[in-house]
């Protein structure tokens, strides 16, 4: 498979075309905005956290296929997870995106998200894939700041 | 008859800009990216450098490197002479009246900041108004916003129409007795629009309002004559006009520069320093504190020599052909929509493809060896005006060809295939 096919795999294109949990959330008790100053990508992540567990998560925004697919897959993965587990997943995903951890060895830690690993061959696009993750991290910490990829 | 037509053909060939020859001057173009010949369409961000500029930098560091305006030794004299000769080349390139009006800075951004801080803080006060246009680069917005915060002035914005042209009637309406400065771009970096700056200047001057032109995107494409334009300040960068990065120029009318305070303090900008009082140096050194980018200035001089050696009529015709060809080809490529359709344009074409983000377009084109810019082009208000988050921008230089545009369009077909 070429690098490009690795980047734009079927699953990613599908999440881009029909993003999951792509909606606002009226009863959200955590919310954060993420922004990539490099390209203007913008994402808002909504969370409903109850007893330390993310029982609902959604997002909205504008961005490229990679950022949208990454956000969509993230919401699918995080629903039902505890905040602590979400942090751990964030760390592991981030390592794979930046090429710090090898995708093959990380598969047991990040599951389906391993599909995002193609991005590490495209340094300019790593931030696209990590934007939603930075944002959810900031929503969970509840600092109310706009998260950026910088 | 046949002989005549042959003759006509060869006359046409002689009158054409010899792109193949020109490309030999740019070593960077001789490489492959992802196994494909590099097609460099990101000239609006920075242009490539001809061999003569590269050689000049190398020669300076190998044979002349020294600090300027101070050494009694020969190297310093040589470096000073070369640096000041470059200033003279810049003056002649934009037809300024005097070398005193040519201030070397880091780039367009620093030039605009210099004017905002030095002129703006001295001569603008609370309630005054500054006019910019809706298609400015952030570097011609933010320095004025900072000034507004410092002195309590107000930023007014001339709207643009759907083609990306300044709405002149709105500009006329914005001008009033509170207007104390006008700062507009000469050529839009995001849209390619050539702004009717002479008319803008004339209207401002009727009210004695000084005008700064951001010429970063204009100098690589148009013959600029600051006296003919009548502008009070003109700012541009070396690296977008085939020179080195880190050096740029502020032209200012001597009369205005004389009454402006220094922008930064330090060496070179003084004539006498005591702890009681410091006397500032004369123009242009008053605005050039610290050791400048000497090699950069000399390299910019080499870029100007190179440009002066080209036939600008043919160059303009060639760039016009690139733009019309790209406009035509992209108009036929239906999923694309061109953003910026002004009647007067320089070689910039910005476009969007429905449901496909510019970033994805940029990544796929890169795989075809085509370098374009994808994003907001440091002109976020322009993106907002057209309701798009980002565009893909191909910006041309005279070394580009119509064949390269064909490759880009083939790449766009691949984009469609990926996103099916």
Can you characterise this structure?
- The complex is a heterodimer of chains A (150) and B (420).
- Chain A has helices spanning 3-7, 10-17, 65-78, 83-97, 103-110, 126-141; strands at residues 30-36, 41-50, 53-62, 147-148.
- Chain A has 150 residues and is of the alpha+beta class.
- Chain A is globular, with a radius of gyration of 14 Å.
- Chain B is globular and about 75 Å long.
- Chain B is built from 15 helices and 17 strands.
CATH overall fold name of chain A: Sufe protein. Chain: A
Strand content of chain A: 15-25%
Radius of gyration of chain A, in angstroms, nearest whole number: 14 Å
Using the alpha-carbon principal axes, give the shape of chain B.
globular
Q: Estimate the helix proportion of chain B, in percent.
A: 40-55%
Distance linking N and C termini of chain B: 52 Å
Helix content of chain A: 40-55%
CATH topology of the largest domain in chain B: Aspartate Aminotransferase, domain 2
Number of domains of chain A: 1
What's the arrangement of secondary structure elements?
The complex is a heterodimer of chains A (150) and B (420).
Chain A: H1 3-7, H2 10-17, E1 30-36, E2 41-50, E3 53-62, H3 65-78, H4 83-97, H5 103-110, H6 126-141, E4 147-148
Parallel strand pairs in A: 1-4
Antiparallel strand pairs in A: 1-2, 2-3
Chain B: H1 2-15, H2 19-23, E1 32-33, E2 36-37, E3 39-40, H3 51-64, H4 74-94, E4 102-105, H5 108-123, E5 129-133, H6 142-151, E6 154-158, H7 168-174, E7 179-185, H8 197-205, E8 211-214, H9 226-229, E9 233-237, E10 248-252, H10 254-259, E11 270-273, E12 278-280, H11 294-308, H12 312-332, E13 336-339, E14 348-353, H13 358-367, E15 370-371, E16 373-375, H14 380-386, E17 391-395, H15 402-419
Parallel strand pairs in B: 3-15, 5-6, 5-7, 7-8, 8-9
Antiparallel strand pairs in B: 1-2, 4-10, 9-10, 11-12, 13-14, 14-17, 16-17
């Amino acid at each position: 498979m070429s690098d490009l096919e690795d980047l734009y795999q079927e699953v990613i294109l599908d999440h881009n075309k029909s993003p999951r949990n792509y909606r606002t959330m009226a009863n959200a008790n955590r919310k954060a905005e993420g922004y990539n100053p490099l390209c203007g990508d913008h994402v808002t992540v909504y969370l409903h956290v109850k007893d330390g567990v993310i029982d609902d998560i959604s997002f909205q925004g504008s961005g490229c296929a990679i950022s949208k697919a990454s956000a969509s897959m993230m919401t699918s993965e995080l629903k039902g997870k505890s905040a602590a587990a979400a942090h751990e997943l964030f760390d592991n995903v981030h390592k794979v995106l930046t090429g710090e951890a090898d995708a093959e060895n990380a598969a047991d830690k990040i599951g389906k998200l391993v599909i995002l690993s193609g991005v590490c061959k495209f340094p300019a696009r790593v931030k696209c894939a990590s934007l939603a993750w930075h944002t959810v991290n900031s929503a969970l910490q509840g600092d109310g700041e706009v998260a950026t990829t910088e | 008859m046949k002989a005549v037509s042959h003759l006509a053909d060869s006359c046409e060939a002689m009158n054409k800009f010899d792109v193949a020859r020109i490309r030999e001057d740019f070593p960077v173009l001789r490489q492959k990216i992802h196994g494909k010949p590099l097609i460099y369409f990101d000239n609006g961000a920075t242009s490539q450098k001809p061999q003569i500029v590269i050689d000049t930098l190398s020669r300076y560091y190998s044979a002349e490197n020294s600090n300027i305006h101070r050494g009694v030794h020969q190297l310093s004299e040589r470096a000073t002479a070369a640096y000041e000769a470059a200033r003279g080349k810049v003056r002649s390139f934009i037809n300024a009246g005097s070398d005193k009006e040519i201030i070397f800075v880091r780039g367009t951004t620093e030039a605009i900041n210099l004017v905002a801080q030095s002129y703006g803080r001295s001569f603008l006060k609370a309630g005054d108004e500054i006019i910019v246009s809706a298609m400015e680069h952030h570097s011609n917005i933010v320095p004025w916003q900072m000034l507004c915060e410092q002195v309590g002035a107000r930023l007014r914005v001339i709207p643009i129409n759907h083609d990306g042209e300044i709405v002149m009637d709105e500009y006329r309406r914005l001008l009033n007795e509170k207007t104390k400065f006008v700062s507009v771009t000469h050529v839009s970096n995001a849209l390619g629009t050539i702004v009717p700056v002479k008319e803008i200047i004339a209207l401002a001057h009727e009210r004695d309002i000084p005008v700064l032109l951001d010429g970063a995107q204009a100098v690589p494409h148009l013959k600029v004559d600051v006296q003919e334009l009548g502008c009070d300040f003109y700012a541009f960068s070396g690296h977008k006009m085939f020179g080195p990065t880190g050096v740029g120029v502020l032209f200012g009318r001597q009369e205005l520069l004389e009454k402006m305070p220094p922008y930064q303090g330090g060496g070179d900008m003084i004539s006498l320093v005591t702890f009681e009082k410091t006397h500032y140096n004369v123009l242009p050194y008053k605005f050039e504190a610290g050791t400048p980018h000497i090699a950069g200035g000399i390299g910019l001089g080499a870029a100007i020599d190179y440009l002066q050696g080209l036939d600008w009529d043919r160059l303009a015709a060639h760039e016009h052909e690139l733009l019309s060809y790209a406009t035509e080809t992209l108009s036929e490529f239906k999923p694309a929509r061109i953003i910026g359709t002004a009647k007067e344009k320089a070689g910039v074409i910005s476009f969007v493809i429905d449901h496909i983000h510019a970033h994805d377009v940029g990544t796929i084109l890169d795989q075809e060896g085509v370098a374009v810019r994808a994003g907001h082009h440091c002109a976020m208000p322009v993106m907002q005006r057209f309701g798009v988050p980002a565009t893909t921008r191909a910006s041309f230089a005279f070394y580009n060809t119509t064949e390269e545009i064909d490759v880009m369009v083939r790449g766009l077909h691949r984009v469609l295939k990926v996103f099916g």
